[in-house]
C-alpha cells in the first residue's frame, strides 16, 4: 500500500468515525528538564524564564498581553546544516527463497468496498481504492521499502536507475533559475529495460508524453495539480494548464489594495468602465470578496434597501456579474453607503469589482519537464526542494505514466453540446478518457497486471512478466504472491465471514468486533494521521441569530473542553482510537531521516503540557516534561466548572446571555446511527456536567441534528458545532495548520472554525531573544513554506526570519508546537481522539513486521510471504481460529 | 378498447415527460458536492464542471440532454443512436447505457428466481390458510406471515448467509463472479440461491396474506353457496369460482412483484455481493451524477407507467365483466 501513502500529500477530509480501541503509542525518544508552568487556565500567567537544554524552549504558558497579542513562548533556533540528513539504502532481503522465484502458486485475497467510482487512470485517479489498484500495476521513480534492520525504511530506485542528480546550475537563466540557486532542477536517469505488460518499450518520450497529457488544458485531468501544487511544483506546469484561458480576477485580492483604483478606471464608449488595459470592470453579485471576508453581496441580500438588490440582479449575467457603469455604481452605493453597512464611500466600491484576465499562452517547451536523452529526463521545480535526499524521492515515488497508443484510443472528443466530434474538429470543448476503467483499457508497468475486472464484483491481478524487477536481481526476497484477487464486499458482516472462511486475507475490525478479537495475536493496529475534533462556530453575528452567543465566549469553550473525558470517549465509541489532545498525532514525522515523531519532540509535548496546564520540574507534580505529557487527560470537571462560572459572569456582563433563557447548542452529525446518538449523549452529558453549580445549570444543553452535508453547513455558519477531522501526509506536518485551520474564517476555504479569524490574532514568539510578531495566520503560512514572499519580522522591524525550512528539524518542531498551542488555546476546536484502525491478518502468510511504519505499513505485498499454497489453504482455512 | 389503449399510451408519454422534466430540474437544483473536498486546485474542478455544461441555464442543459437522446445520424452512426451520456461522477467516462446494461441482468435474474419460487408458495399457503380459516393451520400460517412481514429482509439475508453459507458451507458467501462462472451456469445459480431465498421470504408472506384475505372473502359469497347447491363439489366450487374471482386483485399484485424485480435491492445486493443496479440510483443522487440519475429515472418511470397500463389492461382479461374504457 505504499503508493497510497506516498500519494497522500493531498489533505483529505475523513467523515467516518472509527470503531475499536488500542493502546497509546508513547514511544518518546527525547527527555527534558523543564520548569514548572503556571496553573492551567490562568488568563494572565507570568511566564517563567528557565532554559531547557534540549529544545531551547523556555516557557510553556500562553500569555495574553495588554494589547491582545498572545505571547506563545521563547526558544533558541538552529539553522539546518548541510541540507538535511542522509537516507538509508539498505533493504530487507526477505524471507529466504520466499519470493517471486518460488514455483508454487500463491494468491493474496483482498477486498474493497465499492467500485462505482473506481478509475485507475494514472492521470485522473481520485480515491484510495483507485490508488490501491495502481499499487499493483504501476511503479514510482523511487519507492520506500523496509530496511535491513526492519525498523524503518530505505529508498529504492524503481523506474529510475539511480538517485536524482541536482543539475540546477546547468539551467541558469532558464525556467526561472538564477545564478547560485540549487535543488531546483533534477535529472533522472531512467532504466533502459522498462516495458509495458505487452512488451512495448518505455523510454523518456513516454514520460514526457504522459506529463504533457497530464497537464492537457482541455482534458483537465484530476491529477494535473500533482505537477503544479505542493512542494514539488514543476515550473510553468500550471501556466500550461490554464494557457490562453480567461479567468475572473478580483480587483482587490486582499481586501486592502486595489489593482485598479476608483479614479483609474476608464469609461468606455458604451458607458462601461474598464481597467487602463481595457478589460471591462464588473461588480460581482455572487463573487466572494476579501473585502467581505470572502462573502458575496448575495449573502447580504436581506440587508439591501428595498428594490436595490433586485435592480442590480436584473443587470447581472448568469454568473452574477454586473457591468460597472455610472448607473450601477450609484445603485450599489445605495446599499454600501448606508449606515448599517459602514457608510462606505463610492471609492470603496473598487473592492466589489472584478475583471476578466486572459492568461498568457504557454508552450509545452516552456514547462520544466523535458527529456535530455532517450532514457533521461529533467524536472525543474518552482521552489528549491528542502531535504532533497528525502523529499525528491518522496515526491517522485509515483509516476504518471500512460501507454500512448492506448491512451489516444480511449479518448472521446465532444463539443459544447456534449456531442461526439472527431479528433480534428475545431469545436472540441472537452475530452474524456476511459483509460483505466477495464482490462482492455489498462496497461501495467508495475509488478502485476490486471487480468480480470467486473464492476462491483471482482478484480484479479496476475504477475506482469515484463516487469523489470523480476529480472534485474534487485528484487530478491520480494513479491511471492503470484496473483492478487480482490473481491468487492460492501458489508462489514460479509467481510468478516469471508475472512473467517479464509476467502480474504485481512479484514478491518469495528468496535463491536473488539470484544471478540481484541486480544487476537493476529490483530494489527494501523495509526492514521487524522485527528477528530469538535469544532465550534464562534462568529458572534451568526451565533446571535441562532441564540447561542455563549459559544463565542472562550471560557465557555475552555470549560467544555475540560469536561470531556477523551479517553473514555475514544474507548467507548471508536474502533481503535486513542484520546486526542493536539491537532497532530504521533504519526507525523518531524525529521524524515530519523523517522522521529513530531509529537514526541519537546516542543510538541510542551505545547500540550502548557495548554492543559500540567506542571513539572522541581517541586511540581511531575518530574519532567515527558512525565507530564504522559499524564495529560484534558479532563478536570472541577476546573471546568470554575471556567463555566467565569463564562457565565462574562456572558451576563456583555449581555450575550440573559440568565434565564434555555440555550440549545446545535450539534450536526452525519447520520442518526446508534453510535452517533451515543456520542451525542456523551457530549451532552459532559456539557451539562460542566454547567452544574453554575448559572448555566439546567439552561444549556445540546441538540442533535442529522445533516449529511454538515461540513458545508458549518462553512456557511449555519450551525453551532460539528465533528471535524483533518489529516494529511505524515511526513509533512507543517502544512496542516495553515491549510486546514488558518486559511479562511468565513468558510470559503478549508478552515471549519467559522468566525475564528486568525489574521486578527497577533502572536509573539521570542526567538534567540528577539521578539517576532505576526498574525497567527501569517505564522502558519510562513511555516507552510509555500509562499516565499511571506516574511516574519521582529517587533521593531530590524530583523527578518529566514524561511521556515532554513531551520533545523528540532527548531521547526519547537516553533510549530508553539503555534499549535496558540491555536488550541482559543478552544475553537477541541481535539477528541486520534484515529487508528484495527484489522485481522490471516494465518495464510506473514508480513515481516507487526508494528506499523509510515510509508511502508507492515512491509506491503512486496515482503508478504506465504505459509500455504492455494491448495493447502483451501483445505485448512476454515478450521483456523482467530 | 383500442382507442382506450392508444389514449392511455399517449397519456403515458405526457406523464413520462412531466416526471422526467421535474426530476431533471430538481436534481439540478441540489447543490453540487463541495469542490474543496475534491482536489487541491479547486479551479480545476470548477473548470471541469463548466466543460460538463453545469454553468448553463437548467433548461438549456435539459434541451441538450434531449437533443443527445434524439441523436440521429451524428457521430457517423446510422439512424437513431440515443446517447444517455457518460458517467461524470461515477463509472467515470463510461457509457451510462452500457453500465446499466451490464448490471441489470444480475438484478433481474436474482429477483426473477425469487419471484418464480415465491409466487407459487405464497399463493398456495394463502389458499391453504383460507381453506383452514380459524383452525390451527391458519393461525400457524398467519403468525408466521406476520413474523416474516414484520422483520426486514436484510435480517433474513444475514441469517441465511450465516447459517447456510458460513456455518454449514452449503453455499458460497457471495454471488460468483463471471471469472469463475458463466451467467446461466449451475455454479452461478447455486451462488445466487442464498440471495434468492432471502428475497423470497417477504414476497411469500405478502402473497400469502393477500391471497388468504381475498379467498376468505370470496368463500363467503352467495354465489359459492349457489354453486354448491347446483351440485358442484367443494373443490370444484373453489377452483372454478372462488379462486378465479379471488385472482382478480391477486394477479395485478403478482405483476407488481415482477415489475419490482427491476429495481433491485440495495441491501441484499450489498450483502451477497451482487453487482446489480440496486445501489446505482441512490449513489447517482449522492454524487450528483446527472446522466446516471436521468437514465435511471427514465428507466424506472417507464417501467412504472408500463406496469400500471399492463395491470389496468389485465383486469379486463382476468375478468371479462370489466370493460376497459367503457362508460
Please give a quick description of this structure:
The complex is a heterodimer of chains A (882) and B (327). Chain A is of the alpha+beta class and 882 residues long.
Structure, described:
By secondary structure, chain A is of the alpha+beta class. Chain A has 23 helices and 34 strands. In chain A, 23% of the residues lie in helices and 19% in strands. In chain A, strands 22, 23, 24, 27, 28, 29 and 32 form a seven-stranded mixed beta sheet that branches. Chain A has a four-stranded mixed beta sheet with strand order 1-2-30-31. In chain A, strands 3-21-20-19 form a four-stranded mixed beta sheet, covered by helices on one side. In chain A, a hairpin with a 6-residue loop joins strand 4 (142-146) and strand 5. In chain A, helix 12 runs antiparallel to helix 16 (637-653) and helix 19 (736-742) packs across helix 20 (776-784). With 327 residues, chain B is an all-alpha fold. Chain B has helices spanning 2-29, 42-51, 58-69, 96-131, 136-150, 153-167, 186-219, 222-229, 234-260, 266-271, 280-287, 290-318. In chain B, helix 1 (2-29) packs antiparallel against helix 12 (290-318), helix 7 (186-219) crosses helix 9 and helix 9 runs antiparallel to helix 12. Chain B is globular, with a radius of gyration of 25 Å. The N and C termini of chain B lie close together (12 Å). Classes of the chains: A alpha+beta (882), B mainly alpha (327). The interface between A and B is large, with 60 and 57 residues.
| Total beta strand runs of chain A | 34
What is the correct CATH architecture of chain B?
Orthogonal Bundle
Radius of gyration of chain A, Cα only, in angstroms?
A: 29 Å
Mean pLDDT of chain B: 86
Number of strands of chain B: 0
Name the beta content range of chain B.
Answer: under 5%
The whole-angstrom Rg of chain B is: 25 Å
Chain pair with largest interface: A-B, 60 and 57 residues
Q: What is the straight-line distance between the termini of chain B?
A: 12 Å
Q: CATH topology of one domain in chain A, which one?
A: Dipeptide-binding Protein, domain 3
Q: How many H/I helical runs of chain B?
A: 12
CATH superfamily of one domain in chain A: Dipeptide-binding Protein, Domain 3
**Relative helix content of chain B:** 55-70%
CATH class call of one domain in chain A:
Alpha Beta
The parts of chain A where pLDDT drops under 50 for at least 5 residues are 1-54
Order of helices and strands of chain B: HHHHHHHHHHHH
Quaternary structure annotation? heterodimer
Provide the structure class of chain B: mainly alpha
Amino acid at each position: 500500500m505504499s503508493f497510497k501513502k506516498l500519494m497522500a500529500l493531498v489533505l483529505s477530509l475523513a467523515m467516518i468515525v472509527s470503531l475499536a480501541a488500542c493502546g497509546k503509542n508513547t514511544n518518546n525518544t527525547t527527555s527534558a528538564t523543564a520548569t514548572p508552568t503556571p496553573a492551567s487556565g490562568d488568563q494572565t500567567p507570568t511566564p517563567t524564564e528557565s532554559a531547557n537544554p534540549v529544545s531551547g524552549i523556555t516557557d510553556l504558558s500562553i500569555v495574553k498581553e495588554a494589547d491582545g497579542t498572545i505571547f506563545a513562548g521563547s526558544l533558541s533556533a538552529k539553522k539546518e546544516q548541510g541540507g538535511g540528513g542522509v537516507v538509508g539504502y539498505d533493504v530487507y532481503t526477505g524471507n529466504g527463497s520466499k519470493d517471486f522465484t518460488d514455483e508454487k502458486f500463491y494468491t493474496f485475497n483482498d477486498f474493497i468496498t465499492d467500485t462505482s467510482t473506481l478509475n485507475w487512470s494514472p492521470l485522473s485517479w481520485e480515491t484510495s481504492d483507485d490508488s490501491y489498484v495502481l499499487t499493483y500495476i504501476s511503479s514510482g521513480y523511487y519507492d520506500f521499502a523496509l530496511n535491513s534492520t526492519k525498523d524503518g525504511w530505505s529508498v529504492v530506485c524503481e523506474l529510475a536507475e539511480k538517485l536524482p542528480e541536482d543539475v540546477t546550475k546547468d539551467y541558469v537563466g532558464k525556467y526561472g533559475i538564477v545564478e547560485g540557486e540549487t535543488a531546483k532542477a533534477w535529472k533522472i536517469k531512467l532504466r533502459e529495460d522498462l516495458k509495458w505488460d505487452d512488451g512495448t518499450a518505455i523510454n523518456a518520450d513516454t514520460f514526457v508524453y504522459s506529463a504533457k497529457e497530464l497537464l492537457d488544458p482541455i482534458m483537465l485531468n484530476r491529477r494535473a495539480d500533482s505537477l503544479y501544487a505542493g512542494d514539488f511544483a514543476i515550473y510553468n506546469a500550471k501556466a500550461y494548464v490554464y494557457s490562453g484561458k480567461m479567468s475572473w480576477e478580483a480587483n482587490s485580492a486582499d481586501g486592502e489594495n486595489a489593482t485598479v483604483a476608483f479614479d483609474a478606471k476608464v469609461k468606455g464608449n458604451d458607458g462601461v468602465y474598464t481597467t487602463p488595459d481595457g478589460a471591462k470592470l464588473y461588480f460581482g453579485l455572487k463573487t466572494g470578496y476579501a473585502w467581505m471576508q470572502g462573502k458575496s453581496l448575495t449573502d447580504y441580500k436581506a440587508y439591501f434597501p428595498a428594490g436595490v438588490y433586485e435592480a442590480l440582479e436584473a443587470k447581472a449575467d448568469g454568473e452574477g456579474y454586473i457591468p460597472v457603469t455610472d448607473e450601477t455604481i450609484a445603485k450599489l452605493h445605495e446599499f454600501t453607503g448606508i449606515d448599517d453597512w459602514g457608510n462606505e464611500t463610492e471609492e470603496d466600491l473598487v473592492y466589489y469589482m472584478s475583471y476578466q484576465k486572459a492568461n498568457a499562452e504557454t508552450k509545452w517547451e516552456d514547462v520544466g519537464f523535458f527529456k535530455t536523452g532517450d532514457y533521461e529526463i529533467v524536472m525543474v521545480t518552482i521552489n528549491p526542494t528542502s531535504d532533497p535526499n528525502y523529499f525528491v524521492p518522496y515526491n517522485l515515488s509515483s509516476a504518471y505514466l500512460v501507454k500512448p497508443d492506448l491512451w489516444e484510443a480511449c479518448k472521446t472528443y465532444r463539443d459544447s453540446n456534449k456531442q461526439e466530434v472527431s479528433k480534428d474538429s475545431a469545436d472540441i470543448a472537452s475530452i474524456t478518457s476511459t483509460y483505466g476503467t477495464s482490462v482492455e483499457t489498462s496497461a501495467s508497468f508495475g509488478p502485476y497486471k490486471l487480468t480480470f475486472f467486473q464492476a462491483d464484483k471482482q478484480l484479479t491481478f496476475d504477475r506482469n512478466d515484463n516487469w523489470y524487477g523480476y529480472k534485474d536481481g534487485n528484487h530478491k526476497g520480494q513479491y511471492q504472491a503470484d496473483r492478487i484477487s480482490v473481491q468487492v464486499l460492501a458489508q462489514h458482516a460479509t467481510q468478516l465471514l469471508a475472512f473467517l472462511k479464509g476467502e480474504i486475507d485481512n479484514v478491518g475490525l469495528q468496535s463491536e468486533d473488539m470484544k471478540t478479537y481484541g486480544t487476537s495475536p493476529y490483530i494489527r493496529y494501523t495509526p492514521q494521521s487524522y485527528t477528530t475534533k469538535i469544532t465550534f462556530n464562534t462568529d458572534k453575528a451568526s451565533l446571535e441569530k441562532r441564540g447561542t452567543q455563549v459559544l463565542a465566549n472562550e471560557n465557555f469553550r475552555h470549560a467544555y473542553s475540560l469536561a470531556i473525558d477523551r479517553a473514555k470517549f475514544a474507548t467507548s465509541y471508536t474502533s481503535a482510537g486513542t484520546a486526542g489532545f493536539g491537532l497532530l498525532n504521533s504519526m507525523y514525522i518531524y525529521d524524515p531521516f530519523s523517522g522521529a515523531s513530531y509529537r514526541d519532540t519537546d516542543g510538541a509535548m510542551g505545547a500540550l503540557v502548557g495548554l492543559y496546564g500540567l506542571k513539572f520540574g522541581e517541586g511540581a507534580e511531575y518530574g519532567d516534561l515527558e512525565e507530564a505529557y504522559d499524564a495529560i487527560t484534558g479532563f478536570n470537571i472541577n476546573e471546568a466548572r470554575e471556567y463555566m462560572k467565569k463564562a457565565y459572569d462574562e456572558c451576563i456582563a456583555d449581555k450575550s446571555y440573559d440568565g434565564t433563557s434555555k440555550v440549545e447548542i446545535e450539534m450536526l452529525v452525519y447520520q442518526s446511527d446508534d453510535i452517533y446518538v451515543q456520542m451525542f449523549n456523551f457530549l451532552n452529558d459532559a456539557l451539562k456536567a460542566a454547567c452544574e453549580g453554575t448559572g448555566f445549570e439546567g439552561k444549556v444543553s445540546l441538540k442533535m441534528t442529522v445533516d449529511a452535508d454538515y461540513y458545508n453547513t458549518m462553512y456557511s455558519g449555519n450551525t453551532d458545532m460539528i465533528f471535524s477531522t483533518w489529516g494529511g501526509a505524515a511526513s509533512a506536518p507543517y502544512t496542516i495548520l495553515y491549510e486546514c485551520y488558518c486559511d479562511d474564517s468565513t468558510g470559503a476555504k478549508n478552515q471549519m472554525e467559522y468566525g475564528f479569524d486568525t489574521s486578527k490574532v497577533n502572536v509573539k514568539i521570542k526567538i534567540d531573544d528577539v521578539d517576532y510578531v505576526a498574525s497567527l495566520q501569517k505564522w502558519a503560512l510562513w511555516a507552510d513554506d509555500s509562499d516565499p514572499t511571506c516574511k516574519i519580522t521582529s517587533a521593531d522591524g530590524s530583523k527578518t526570519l529566514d524561511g521556515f525550512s532554513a531551520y533545523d528539524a528540532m527548531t521547526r518542531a519547537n516553533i510549530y508546537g508553539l503555534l499549535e498551542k496558540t491555536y488550541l488555546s482559543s478552544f475553537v476546536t477541541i481535539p477528541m481522539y486520534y484515529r487508528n484502525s484495527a484489522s485481522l491478518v490471516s494465518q495464510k502468510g506473514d508480513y515481516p513486521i507487526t508494528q506499523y511504519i509510515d510509508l511502508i505499513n507492515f512491509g506491503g505485498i512486496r515482503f508478504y510471504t506465504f505459509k500455504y499454497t492455494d491448495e493447502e489453504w483451501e483445505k485448512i482455512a476454515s478450521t483456523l481460529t482467530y | 378498447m383500442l382507442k382506450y389503449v392508444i389514449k392511455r399510451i399517449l397519456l403515458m408519454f405526457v406523464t413520462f415527460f412531466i416526471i422526467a422534466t421535474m426530476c431533471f430540474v430538481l436534481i439540478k437544483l441540489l447543490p453540487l458536492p463541495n469542490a474543496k473536498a475534491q482536489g487541491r486546485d479547486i479551479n480545476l474542478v470548477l473548470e471541469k464542471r463548466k466543460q460538463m455544461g453545469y454553468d448553463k441555464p437548467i433548461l438549456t442543459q435539459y434541451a441538450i440532454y434531449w437533443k443527445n437522446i434524439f441523436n440521429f445520424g451524428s457521430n457517423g452512426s446510422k439512424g437513431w443512436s440515443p446517447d444517455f451520456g457518460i458517467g461524470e461522477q461515477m463509472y467515470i467516462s463510461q457509457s451510462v447505457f452500457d453500465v446499466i446494461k451490464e448490471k441489470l441482468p444480475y438484478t433481474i435474474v436474482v429477483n426473477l428466481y425469487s419471484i418464480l419460487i415465491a409466487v407459487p408458495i405464497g399463493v398456495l399457503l394463502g389458499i391453504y390458510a383460507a381453506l383452514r380459516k380459524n383452525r390451527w393451520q391458519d393461525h400457524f400460517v398467519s403468525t408466521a406471515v406476520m413474523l416474516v412481514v414484520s422483520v426486514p429482509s436484510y435480517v433474513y439475508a444475514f441469517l441465511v448467509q450465516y447459517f447456510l453459507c458460513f456455518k454449514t458451507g452449503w453455499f458460497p458467501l457471495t454471488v460468483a463472479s463471471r471469472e469463475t462462472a458463466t451467467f446461466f451456469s449451475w455454479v452461478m445459480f447455486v451462488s445466487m440461491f442464498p440471495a434468492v431465498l432471502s428475497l423470497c421470504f417477504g414476497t411469500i408472506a405478502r402473497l400469502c396474506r393477500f391471497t388468504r384475505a381475498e379467498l376468505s372473502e370470496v368463500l363467503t359469497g352467495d354465489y359459492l353457496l349457489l354453486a354448491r347447491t347446483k351440485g358442484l363439489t367443494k373443490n370444484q366450487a373453489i377452483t372454478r369460482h372462488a379462486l378465479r374471482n379471488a385472482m382478480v386483485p391477486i394477479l395485478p399484485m403478482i405483476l407488481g412483484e415482477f415489475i419490482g424485480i427491476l429495481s433491485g435491492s440495495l441491501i441484499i445486493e450489498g450483502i451477497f455481493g451482487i453487482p446489480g443496479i440496486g445501489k446505482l440510483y441512490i449513489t447517482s443522487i449522492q454524487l450528483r451524477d446527472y446522466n446516471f440519475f436521468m437514465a435511471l429515472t427514465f428507466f424506472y418511470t417507464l417501467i412504472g407507467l408500463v406496469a400500471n397500463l399492463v395491470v389496468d389492461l389485465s383486469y379486463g382479461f382476468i375478468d371479462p365483466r370489466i370493460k376497459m374504457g367503457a362508460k
